[in-house]
Give the backbone structure.
Amino acid sequence: MKNIPRVFLGDEIMSGKVISAPSDIAHYLSHVMRTDKCLVFGGGNEYTATLDGKNLIVGNKTDHDDVARDITLMFAPIKRCDDLINMATQLGVGILQPVITERTVARNINWSRMEKIAIEAAEQSGRNSVPKILSPIKFSEIDLSKIAFADERAAHGKTTATKTNIKTILVGPEGGFSDAEFAALDNAGAVGVCLGKTILRAELAAAIAITRVE
């Protein structure tokens, strides 16, 4: 349905349910979009809905399928983390796992704001779910034998895979992985994936890495 606002209401929605509309959503629908009709989504499903005063009345389930994919993006937090979250959400990532690497410099990320950015990206991009953002972990906590990673060494001539069927992919920070981290990845048998022959900004590298997962 074109030109109808989409609103995320959590994962526990169903036809016939009456939900108290958050004040910002009620204001957005009635005063910005000037409508009492919208689409609500969550948990992989989408429904029609009507704003009745301060409540949203959930209608019928639509036939719109969720475009989310069973992909986990592990990423080092970066300065433009909002852009990374936005693009990863639009590309259908299911889980976002921040990872603190040796060269990670952006350590004071407002994760509550990142969750709001993910919700807005899901609303705009047409997916019926919002990716889960997990608490940050250290690089040393990852089971490196079960992941693929964006291997920037391909830009310097290293032969790497162009596609992978591994559903968990790791992307480094602005300064890339350290020599010790590359050694750990190689020794564990992690699959290096080529992002091209040029050096990319970290947020763009993350977006391209997602497209390399089959």
User: Anything to note?
Assistant: The CA atoms of residues 8 and 41 lie 5 Å apart. The chain has a mean pLDDT of 93.
